[in-house]
Design a protein that fits this description.
heterodimer, A: alpha/beta, Rossmann fold, 2 domains, six-stranded mixed beta sheet, three-stranded antiparallel beta sheet, 23% strand, B: mainly alpha, MetI-like fold, 12 helices, 0% strand
Chain lengths: 250, 267
Protein backbone atom coordinates (compact mmCIF):
# COMPACT_ATOMS: atom_id res chain seq x y z
CA UNK A 1 0.00 0.00 0.00
CA UNK A 2 1.26 3.50 -0.81
CA UNK A 3 0.84 6.71 1.16
CA UNK A 4 0.86 9.92 -0.86
CA UNK A 5 1.09 13.44 0.59
CA UNK A 6 0.25 16.07 -2.07
CA UNK A 7 0.97 19.73 -1.31
CA UNK A 8 -0.14 19.27 2.28
CA UNK A 9 -0.43 22.33 4.51
CA UNK A 10 -1.56 22.18 8.10
CA UNK A 11 -2.37 25.13 10.35
CA UNK A 12 -3.44 25.13 14.00
CA UNK A 13 -4.94 28.60 14.39
CA UNK A 14 -2.12 31.04 13.63
CA UNK A 15 0.53 28.35 13.81
CA UNK A 16 1.64 26.87 10.53
CA UNK A 17 2.74 23.30 11.27
CA UNK A 18 3.30 21.94 7.76
CA UNK A 19 3.96 23.75 4.49
CA UNK A 20 3.61 22.22 1.04
CA UNK A 21 4.64 18.74 2.01
CA UNK A 22 4.68 16.27 -0.87
CA UNK A 23 5.93 12.75 -0.36
CA UNK A 24 5.11 9.28 -1.65
CA UNK A 25 5.86 6.30 0.53
CA UNK A 26 6.02 3.20 -1.67
CA UNK A 27 4.45 -0.16 -0.91
CA UNK A 28 6.59 -2.06 1.61
CA UNK A 29 8.92 0.89 2.15
CA UNK A 30 10.27 1.98 5.55
CA UNK A 31 10.42 5.78 5.67
CA UNK A 32 11.59 7.75 8.68
CA UNK A 33 10.65 11.35 9.42
CA UNK A 34 13.33 13.26 11.28
CA UNK A 35 13.71 16.90 12.19
CA UNK A 36 13.90 19.40 15.04
CA UNK A 37 11.24 19.45 17.76
CA UNK A 38 7.95 20.95 16.63
CA UNK A 39 8.71 20.55 12.92
CA UNK A 40 5.46 18.69 12.25
CA UNK A 41 6.64 15.05 12.15
CA UNK A 42 3.85 13.87 14.43
CA UNK A 43 1.34 16.03 12.59
CA UNK A 44 2.29 14.32 9.31
CA UNK A 45 1.83 10.94 10.95
CA UNK A 46 -1.52 11.93 12.48
CA UNK A 47 -2.74 13.14 9.08
CA UNK A 48 -1.70 9.80 7.53
CA UNK A 49 -3.60 8.03 10.33
CA UNK A 50 -6.76 10.06 9.69
CA UNK A 51 -6.51 11.67 13.15
CA UNK A 52 -6.05 15.15 11.64
CA UNK A 53 -7.29 16.68 8.40
CA UNK A 54 -4.88 18.72 6.23
CA UNK A 55 -5.76 22.43 5.94
CA UNK A 56 -4.85 22.28 2.22
CA UNK A 57 -3.72 19.52 -0.10
CA UNK A 58 -4.56 15.88 0.42
CA UNK A 59 -3.26 12.56 1.66
CA UNK A 60 -4.23 9.34 -0.13
CA UNK A 61 -3.66 5.83 1.11
CA UNK A 62 -3.69 3.56 -1.93
CA UNK A 63 -5.82 6.21 -3.64
CA UNK A 64 -8.34 6.42 -0.79
CA UNK A 65 -8.68 8.69 2.25
CA UNK A 66 -6.87 7.74 5.47
CA UNK A 67 -10.25 7.48 7.25
CA UNK A 68 -11.41 4.89 4.72
CA UNK A 69 -8.11 3.02 5.13
CA UNK A 70 -8.81 2.96 8.89
CA UNK A 71 -12.34 1.67 8.22
CA UNK A 72 -10.78 -1.19 6.24
CA UNK A 73 -8.38 -1.76 9.17
CA UNK A 74 -5.36 -1.17 6.93
CA UNK A 75 -3.54 1.11 9.39
CA UNK A 76 -1.84 0.26 12.68
CA UNK A 77 -0.54 3.09 14.87
CA UNK A 78 1.84 3.01 17.84
CA UNK A 79 2.42 6.22 19.76
CA UNK A 80 5.32 7.30 21.97
CA UNK A 81 3.22 6.70 25.09
CA UNK A 82 1.87 3.15 25.00
CA UNK A 83 -1.89 3.14 24.34
CA UNK A 84 -2.60 0.39 26.84
CA UNK A 85 -5.48 -0.04 29.25
CA UNK A 86 -4.12 -0.36 32.80
CA UNK A 87 -6.85 -2.83 33.79
CA UNK A 88 -6.12 -5.26 30.94
CA UNK A 89 -3.26 -7.75 30.80
CA UNK A 90 -0.70 -7.61 27.96
CA UNK A 91 -2.58 -10.34 26.07
CA UNK A 92 -5.96 -8.70 26.64
CA UNK A 93 -4.60 -5.33 25.48
CA UNK A 94 -3.41 -6.91 22.22
CA UNK A 95 -6.66 -8.87 21.83
CA UNK A 96 -8.67 -5.66 22.27
CA UNK A 97 -7.60 -4.64 18.75
CA UNK A 98 -9.21 -7.82 17.38
CA UNK A 99 -12.36 -7.30 19.45
CA UNK A 100 -12.82 -4.19 17.31
CA UNK A 101 -11.43 -5.21 13.93
CA UNK A 102 -12.47 -8.87 13.91
CA UNK A 103 -10.15 -11.80 13.38
CA UNK A 104 -10.15 -12.08 9.56
CA UNK A 105 -6.53 -12.33 8.42
CA UNK A 106 -5.30 -11.39 11.86
CA UNK A 107 -2.27 -12.74 13.66
CA UNK A 108 -2.57 -14.69 16.89
CA UNK A 109 -2.11 -12.31 19.88
CA UNK A 110 -0.65 -15.19 21.84
CA UNK A 111 1.94 -16.09 19.19
CA UNK A 112 2.69 -12.45 18.45
CA UNK A 113 3.55 -11.67 22.08
CA UNK A 114 5.67 -14.82 22.30
CA UNK A 115 7.39 -13.81 19.05
CA UNK A 116 8.03 -10.39 20.61
CA UNK A 117 9.84 -12.05 23.53
CA UNK A 118 6.98 -11.64 25.98
CA UNK A 119 6.09 -15.32 26.31
CA UNK A 120 6.16 -15.23 30.10
CA UNK A 121 4.37 -11.92 30.39
CA UNK A 122 1.03 -12.57 28.64
CA UNK A 123 -0.93 -12.15 31.84
CA UNK A 124 1.05 -9.27 33.30
CA UNK A 125 -0.58 -5.87 33.54
CA UNK A 126 1.11 -2.78 32.00
CA UNK A 127 2.31 -1.49 35.40
CA UNK A 128 4.12 -4.80 35.92
CA UNK A 129 6.12 -4.42 32.68
CA UNK A 130 9.23 -2.36 31.93
CA UNK A 131 9.03 0.56 29.49
CA UNK A 132 10.53 -1.56 26.69
CA UNK A 133 8.08 -4.41 27.34
CA UNK A 134 5.12 -2.01 27.38
CA UNK A 135 6.24 -0.61 24.05
CA UNK A 136 6.49 -4.12 22.57
CA UNK A 137 2.91 -4.82 23.73
CA UNK A 138 1.91 -1.47 22.23
CA UNK A 139 3.44 -2.36 18.85
CA UNK A 140 1.91 -5.86 19.03
CA UNK A 141 -1.50 -4.22 19.58
CA UNK A 142 -0.89 -2.06 16.49
CA UNK A 143 0.24 -5.05 14.39
CA UNK A 144 -2.06 -7.88 15.47
CA UNK A 145 -4.83 -7.20 12.94
CA UNK A 146 -2.11 -7.41 10.28
CA UNK A 147 -2.51 -3.95 8.72
CA UNK A 148 -0.64 -3.18 5.53
CA UNK A 149 0.55 0.14 6.98
CA UNK A 150 2.30 0.76 10.26
CA UNK A 151 2.69 4.29 11.63
CA UNK A 152 5.12 4.61 14.54
CA UNK A 153 5.40 7.89 16.44
CA UNK A 154 8.66 7.86 18.43
CA UNK A 155 7.83 4.50 19.98
CA UNK A 156 11.22 4.32 21.72
CA UNK A 157 11.43 8.00 22.69
CA UNK A 158 10.97 7.39 26.42
CA UNK A 159 13.48 4.53 26.68
CA UNK A 160 17.11 4.63 27.76
CA UNK A 161 19.82 4.46 25.09
CA UNK A 162 20.66 0.75 25.42
CA UNK A 163 17.03 -0.40 25.54
CA UNK A 164 16.30 1.87 22.64
CA UNK A 165 19.07 0.32 20.57
CA UNK A 166 17.87 -3.18 21.40
CA UNK A 167 14.28 -2.25 20.57
CA UNK A 168 15.39 -0.77 17.23
CA UNK A 169 17.11 -4.03 16.33
CA UNK A 170 14.09 -5.98 17.45
CA UNK A 171 11.74 -3.83 15.35
CA UNK A 172 13.98 -4.15 12.30
CA UNK A 173 13.85 -7.93 12.72
CA UNK A 174 10.09 -8.03 13.18
CA UNK A 175 9.40 -5.87 10.13
CA UNK A 176 11.88 -7.71 7.92
CA UNK A 177 9.55 -10.73 8.19
CA UNK A 178 6.58 -8.73 6.88
CA UNK A 179 6.10 -6.49 3.90
CA UNK A 180 4.55 -3.49 5.59
CA UNK A 181 4.65 0.11 4.55
CA UNK A 182 6.07 1.99 7.53
CA UNK A 183 6.31 5.64 8.51
CA UNK A 184 8.52 6.03 11.55
CA UNK A 185 9.02 9.24 13.51
CA UNK A 186 12.19 9.63 15.56
CA UNK A 187 14.70 12.12 16.93
CA UNK A 188 17.55 9.65 16.65
CA UNK A 189 19.73 9.87 13.55
CA UNK A 190 21.23 6.41 14.27
CA UNK A 191 17.79 4.82 14.66
CA UNK A 192 16.58 6.44 11.44
CA UNK A 193 19.64 5.24 9.51
CA UNK A 194 19.69 1.65 10.69
CA UNK A 195 15.95 1.08 10.15
CA UNK A 196 15.01 3.04 7.05
CA UNK A 197 14.96 2.72 3.30
CA UNK A 198 14.63 6.49 3.10
CA UNK A 199 15.03 9.25 5.67
CA UNK A 200 12.92 12.38 5.21
CA UNK A 201 14.53 15.42 6.86
CA UNK A 202 12.08 18.14 7.84
CA UNK A 203 12.97 21.77 8.51
CA UNK A 204 11.90 23.60 11.67
CA UNK A 205 8.37 25.01 11.82
CA UNK A 206 6.67 25.36 9.46
CA UNK A 207 7.70 21.83 8.57
CA UNK A 208 8.89 21.44 4.99
CA UNK A 209 10.76 18.58 3.42
CA UNK A 210 14.38 19.76 3.40
CA UNK A 211 15.88 16.58 1.95
CA UNK A 212 15.05 12.95 1.28
CA UNK A 213 17.99 10.60 1.79
CA UNK A 214 18.15 7.07 0.37
CA UNK A 215 19.95 4.90 2.91
CA UNK A 216 22.46 2.85 0.96
CA UNK A 217 22.85 -0.03 3.39
CA UNK A 218 22.12 -3.64 2.48
CA UNK A 219 19.53 -5.63 4.42
CA UNK A 220 19.33 -7.44 6.75
CA UNK A 221 20.95 -4.97 9.14
CA UNK A 222 22.14 -6.17 12.51
CA UNK A 223 24.07 -4.89 15.54
CA UNK A 224 27.28 -5.50 13.58
CA UNK A 225 26.07 -3.01 10.97
CA UNK A 226 26.36 -0.26 13.58
CA UNK A 227 30.15 -0.47 13.54
CA UNK A 228 30.31 -0.78 9.78
CA UNK A 229 32.02 2.07 7.91
CA UNK A 230 29.14 2.44 5.44
CA UNK A 231 26.68 2.78 8.30
CA UNK A 232 28.78 5.47 9.96
CA UNK A 233 29.03 7.33 6.65
CA UNK A 234 25.23 7.17 6.20
CA UNK A 235 24.70 8.41 9.77
CA UNK A 236 27.03 11.35 9.03
CA UNK A 237 25.10 12.09 5.83
CA UNK A 238 21.73 12.19 7.64
CA UNK A 239 23.19 14.24 10.50
CA UNK A 240 24.72 16.78 8.11
CA UNK A 241 21.41 17.10 6.33
CA UNK A 242 19.61 17.60 9.64
CA UNK A 243 22.08 20.32 10.73
CA UNK A 244 21.67 22.03 7.38
CA UNK A 245 17.86 21.95 7.73
CA UNK A 246 18.10 23.51 11.22
CA UNK A 247 20.57 26.18 10.06
CA UNK A 248 18.40 27.08 7.05
CA UNK A 249 15.40 27.47 9.35
CA UNK A 250 17.35 29.82 11.62
CA UNK B 1 6.85 -3.71 66.41
CA UNK B 2 4.49 -6.34 64.98
CA UNK B 3 5.14 -4.97 61.49
CA UNK B 4 8.91 -5.22 62.03
CA UNK B 5 8.58 -8.83 63.16
CA UNK B 6 6.44 -9.70 60.15
CA UNK B 7 8.87 -8.09 57.71
CA UNK B 8 11.73 -9.97 59.30
CA UNK B 9 10.05 -13.31 58.55
CA UNK B 10 9.67 -12.39 54.90
CA UNK B 11 6.08 -11.21 54.43
CA UNK B 12 5.63 -8.50 51.79
CA UNK B 13 4.95 -4.86 52.66
CA UNK B 14 1.40 -5.11 51.26
CA UNK B 15 0.57 -7.94 53.65
CA UNK B 16 2.06 -5.99 56.56
CA UNK B 17 -0.06 -2.97 55.61
CA UNK B 18 -3.18 -5.15 55.45
CA UNK B 19 -2.48 -6.68 58.88
CA UNK B 20 -1.82 -3.24 60.35
CA UNK B 21 -5.15 -1.99 58.92
CA UNK B 22 -7.03 -4.93 60.46
CA UNK B 23 -5.24 -4.43 63.77
CA UNK B 24 -6.32 -0.77 63.78
CA UNK B 25 -9.99 -1.81 63.31
CA UNK B 26 -9.67 -4.40 66.10
CA UNK B 27 -8.18 -1.78 68.44
CA UNK B 28 -11.05 0.59 67.64
CA UNK B 29 -13.76 -2.03 68.27
CA UNK B 30 -12.18 -3.01 71.60
CA UNK B 31 -11.60 0.64 72.60
CA UNK B 32 -15.19 1.84 72.13
CA UNK B 33 -16.78 -0.13 75.05
CA UNK B 34 -13.74 0.59 77.24
CA UNK B 35 -13.97 4.35 76.61
CA UNK B 36 -17.73 4.15 77.06
CA UNK B 37 -17.42 2.56 80.51
CA UNK B 38 -14.65 5.00 81.41
CA UNK B 39 -16.88 7.94 80.43
CA UNK B 40 -19.63 6.63 82.72
CA UNK B 41 -17.15 6.19 85.58
CA UNK B 42 -15.62 9.66 85.16
CA UNK B 43 -18.84 11.66 84.59
CA UNK B 44 -21.00 9.68 86.98
CA UNK B 45 -24.04 10.12 84.73
CA UNK B 46 -26.96 7.88 85.73
CA UNK B 47 -27.89 5.01 83.40
CA UNK B 48 -31.07 6.73 82.13
CA UNK B 49 -28.85 9.50 80.72
CA UNK B 50 -25.78 7.49 79.71
CA UNK B 51 -26.64 3.79 79.66
CA UNK B 52 -23.79 1.29 80.04
CA UNK B 53 -22.86 -1.02 77.10
CA UNK B 54 -24.54 -4.09 78.63
CA UNK B 55 -27.85 -2.21 79.00
CA UNK B 56 -27.72 -1.15 75.31
CA UNK B 57 -26.73 -4.70 74.35
CA UNK B 58 -29.81 -5.91 76.22
CA UNK B 59 -32.02 -3.54 74.15
CA UNK B 60 -30.40 -4.73 70.94
CA UNK B 61 -31.33 -8.29 71.83
CA UNK B 62 -34.75 -7.95 73.47
CA UNK B 63 -36.07 -5.39 70.96
CA UNK B 64 -34.41 -7.00 67.96
CA UNK B 65 -37.66 -7.48 66.04
CA UNK B 66 -38.68 -3.84 66.46
CA UNK B 67 -35.18 -2.67 65.48
CA UNK B 68 -35.05 -5.05 62.49
CA UNK B 69 -38.41 -3.85 61.20
CA UNK B 70 -37.43 -0.17 61.36
CA UNK B 71 -33.95 -0.92 59.99
CA UNK B 72 -35.53 -2.62 56.97
CA UNK B 73 -37.63 0.48 56.23
CA UNK B 74 -34.50 2.65 56.36
CA UNK B 75 -32.55 0.24 54.13
CA UNK B 76 -35.33 0.15 51.51
CA UNK B 77 -35.56 3.96 51.41
CA UNK B 78 -31.76 4.36 51.28
CA UNK B 79 -31.25 1.75 48.54
CA UNK B 80 -34.17 3.00 46.44
CA UNK B 81 -32.95 6.58 46.67
CA UNK B 82 -29.40 5.51 45.97
CA UNK B 83 -30.38 3.49 42.89
CA UNK B 84 -32.35 6.46 41.51
CA UNK B 85 -29.42 8.83 42.26
CA UNK B 86 -27.02 6.49 40.42
CA UNK B 87 -29.31 6.18 37.40
CA UNK B 88 -29.83 9.95 37.08
CA UNK B 89 -26.19 10.86 37.78
CA UNK B 90 -24.74 8.32 35.31
CA UNK B 91 -27.26 9.26 32.60
CA UNK B 92 -26.42 12.95 33.07
CA UNK B 93 -22.65 12.30 33.07
CA UNK B 94 -22.95 10.43 29.77
CA UNK B 95 -25.08 13.20 28.29
CA UNK B 96 -22.43 15.77 29.40
CA UNK B 97 -19.81 13.79 27.48
CA UNK B 98 -21.66 13.65 24.18
CA UNK B 99 -23.79 16.82 24.45
CA UNK B 100 -21.59 19.51 26.06
CA UNK B 101 -24.47 22.02 26.01
CA UNK B 102 -26.27 19.74 28.49
CA UNK B 103 -23.51 20.36 31.01
CA UNK B 104 -23.88 24.14 30.68
CA UNK B 105 -27.65 23.78 31.02
CA UNK B 106 -27.46 21.50 34.06
CA UNK B 107 -24.68 23.34 35.92
CA UNK B 108 -26.90 25.92 37.72
CA UNK B 109 -29.28 23.14 38.75
CA UNK B 110 -26.52 20.97 40.16
CA UNK B 111 -25.08 23.97 42.08
CA UNK B 112 -28.52 24.64 43.60
CA UNK B 113 -29.10 20.98 44.47
CA UNK B 114 -25.68 20.73 46.07
CA UNK B 115 -25.88 23.91 48.13
CA UNK B 116 -29.49 24.38 49.30
CA UNK B 117 -29.72 22.99 52.88
CA UNK B 118 -31.40 19.62 52.46
CA UNK B 119 -33.11 19.87 55.88
CA UNK B 120 -35.25 22.74 54.56
CA UNK B 121 -35.98 20.89 51.31
CA UNK B 122 -36.92 17.82 53.39
CA UNK B 123 -39.40 19.89 55.42
CA UNK B 124 -40.97 21.30 52.25
CA UNK B 125 -41.20 17.85 50.67
CA UNK B 126 -42.80 16.38 53.80
CA UNK B 127 -45.40 19.18 53.84
CA UNK B 128 -46.22 18.52 50.16
CA UNK B 129 -45.95 14.74 50.02
CA UNK B 130 -46.87 13.80 53.60
CA UNK B 131 -45.85 10.62 55.38
CA UNK B 132 -44.93 8.54 52.35
CA UNK B 133 -41.57 6.99 51.41
CA UNK B 134 -41.23 9.49 48.56
CA UNK B 135 -39.83 12.53 50.46
CA UNK B 136 -37.26 10.30 52.16
CA UNK B 137 -36.21 8.78 48.85
CA UNK B 138 -35.96 12.24 47.27
CA UNK B 139 -33.76 13.41 50.16
CA UNK B 140 -31.46 10.41 49.67
CA UNK B 141 -31.28 11.23 45.95
CA UNK B 142 -30.45 14.88 46.65
CA UNK B 143 -27.69 13.99 49.11
CA UNK B 144 -26.03 11.23 47.06
CA UNK B 145 -26.56 12.44 43.52
CA UNK B 146 -23.87 15.12 43.34
CA UNK B 147 -20.73 13.14 44.29
CA UNK B 148 -21.67 10.46 41.75
CA UNK B 149 -22.36 13.01 39.01
CA UNK B 150 -19.13 14.94 39.66
CA UNK B 151 -16.92 11.85 39.83
CA UNK B 152 -18.39 9.95 36.87
CA UNK B 153 -18.30 13.10 34.71
CA UNK B 154 -14.64 13.65 35.58
CA UNK B 155 -13.83 9.95 35.12
CA UNK B 156 -15.42 9.72 31.67
CA UNK B 157 -13.44 12.78 30.57
CA UNK B 158 -10.19 11.43 32.01
CA UNK B 159 -9.85 8.72 29.34
CA UNK B 160 -6.29 8.62 27.98
CA UNK B 161 -6.21 10.63 24.69
CA UNK B 162 -3.63 8.19 23.30
CA UNK B 163 -6.06 5.32 23.84
CA UNK B 164 -8.84 7.34 22.23
CA UNK B 165 -6.57 7.94 19.20
CA UNK B 166 -5.84 4.21 19.02
CA UNK B 167 -9.58 3.47 19.07
CA UNK B 168 -10.19 6.03 16.31
CA UNK B 169 -7.54 4.52 14.03
CA UNK B 170 -9.25 1.14 14.52
CA UNK B 171 -12.54 2.74 13.42
CA UNK B 172 -14.22 1.86 16.74
CA UNK B 173 -17.88 2.68 17.27
CA UNK B 174 -18.88 5.15 19.99
CA UNK B 175 -20.22 2.17 21.97
CA UNK B 176 -16.85 0.38 21.75
CA UNK B 177 -15.01 3.54 22.80
CA UNK B 178 -17.38 3.95 25.74
CA UNK B 179 -17.29 0.35 26.97
CA UNK B 180 -13.60 -0.36 26.34
CA UNK B 181 -11.97 2.98 27.19
CA UNK B 182 -14.23 5.61 28.73
CA UNK B 183 -16.08 3.48 31.27
CA UNK B 184 -12.96 1.61 32.51
CA UNK B 185 -11.32 5.05 32.93
CA UNK B 186 -14.33 6.31 34.92
CA UNK B 187 -14.61 3.23 37.13
CA UNK B 188 -12.04 4.28 39.81
CA UNK B 189 -13.79 7.67 40.06
CA UNK B 190 -17.21 5.98 40.29
CA UNK B 191 -16.06 3.67 43.07
CA UNK B 192 -14.52 6.63 44.94
CA UNK B 193 -17.94 8.35 44.75
CA UNK B 194 -19.58 5.30 46.33
CA UNK B 195 -17.27 5.56 49.34
CA UNK B 196 -18.89 8.91 50.16
CA UNK B 197 -22.36 8.54 48.68
CA UNK B 198 -23.37 5.01 49.71
CA UNK B 199 -22.75 5.79 53.39
CA UNK B 200 -24.49 9.12 52.82
CA UNK B 201 -27.62 7.32 51.59
CA UNK B 202 -28.08 5.65 55.01
CA UNK B 203 -27.48 8.91 56.87
CA UNK B 204 -29.83 10.77 54.48
CA UNK B 205 -32.64 8.26 55.02
CA UNK B 206 -32.26 8.38 58.83
CA UNK B 207 -32.28 12.20 58.89
CA UNK B 208 -35.34 12.36 56.60
CA UNK B 209 -37.18 9.93 58.89
CA UNK B 210 -36.04 11.92 61.90
CA UNK B 211 -37.84 14.98 60.52
CA UNK B 212 -41.16 13.24 59.95
CA UNK B 213 -42.04 9.55 59.65
CA UNK B 214 -43.89 6.71 61.28
CA UNK B 215 -41.34 4.05 60.43
CA UNK B 216 -37.57 3.73 60.15
CA UNK B 217 -34.55 4.28 62.38
CA UNK B 218 -34.94 8.07 62.31
CA UNK B 219 -38.49 7.76 63.57
CA UNK B 220 -37.35 5.34 66.28
CA UNK B 221 -34.83 7.93 67.53
CA UNK B 222 -37.55 10.60 67.83
CA UNK B 223 -39.95 8.17 69.55
CA UNK B 224 -37.27 6.93 71.97
CA UNK B 225 -36.22 10.49 72.86
CA UNK B 226 -39.81 11.47 73.64
CA UNK B 227 -40.01 8.44 75.94
CA UNK B 228 -36.60 9.23 77.57
CA UNK B 229 -35.33 5.86 76.33
CA UNK B 230 -31.63 6.73 76.08
CA UNK B 231 -30.81 3.02 75.95
CA UNK B 232 -32.86 2.61 72.76
CA UNK B 233 -31.40 5.80 71.21
CA UNK B 234 -27.96 4.26 71.76
CA UNK B 235 -29.14 0.96 70.29
CA UNK B 236 -30.45 2.77 67.18
CA UNK B 237 -27.17 4.69 66.95
CA UNK B 238 -25.25 1.42 66.96
CA UNK B 239 -27.52 -0.12 64.30
CA UNK B 240 -27.38 2.97 62.06
CA UNK B 241 -23.59 3.20 62.47
CA UNK B 242 -23.21 -0.50 61.68
CA UNK B 243 -25.30 0.01 58.52
CA UNK B 244 -23.21 2.98 57.38
CA UNK B 245 -19.91 1.25 58.18
CA UNK B 246 -21.22 -1.92 56.46
CA UNK B 247 -22.04 0.14 53.35
CA UNK B 248 -18.52 1.61 53.38
CA UNK B 249 -16.87 -1.78 53.85
CA UNK B 250 -18.99 -3.29 51.06
CA UNK B 251 -17.70 -0.57 48.71
CA UNK B 252 -14.13 -1.30 49.81
CA UNK B 253 -14.60 -5.03 49.14
CA UNK B 254 -16.03 -4.32 45.67
CA UNK B 255 -13.19 -1.86 45.01
CA UNK B 256 -10.62 -4.43 46.04
CA UNK B 257 -12.19 -7.04 43.76
CA UNK B 258 -12.51 -4.73 40.75
CA UNK B 259 -8.98 -3.37 41.08
CA UNK B 260 -7.32 -6.59 42.23
CA UNK B 261 -4.95 -6.29 39.25
CA UNK B 262 -3.41 -3.16 40.81
CA UNK B 263 -1.88 -5.00 43.76
CA UNK B 264 -0.57 -8.00 41.86
CA UNK B 265 3.17 -7.61 41.50
CA UNK B 266 5.69 -9.48 39.38
CA UNK B 267 6.30 -12.08 42.09
Amino acid sequence: MTIEFSQVNKRFGDIEALQEVSLTVQDGEFVTLIGPSGCGKTTMLRIAAGLEEPSDGEVRVNGDTPRNACRQHQIGVAFQRPALLASRSALSNVSMTLEITGRDGALSPDELLTDFGLGEFHHHYPHQLSGGMQQRVNIAAALVHNPAILLLDEPFGALDELTREAMGEWLGGVLSRSAKTVIFVTHSVEEATILSDRVVVLSARPGRIAEVIEVGLPRPRSRASRTDENYLREVARVRTSLYRAVELSN
Amino acid sequence: MLAIVIVSIGITNDRVQLMNDRLAYLIMFVSVPILWVLAIQITGFPSFLLPPPDMVGDVLWTERELLASHTWTTIVEALTGYAVANAIAIALSISFLYLPWMESLALPWTVIIKNVPFVTIASILIIILGDTPLPKIIIVVLITFFPILANVTKGLKSADPVLLDRMQTLDSSQWEIFTKVRWPSALPYYIAAHEIAFTGSIIGAVVAEWLFARKGLGYLIVQSMSQYRADRVWAVTIVASALAVGAYLLVKVIEKYLFRWQVEDLS
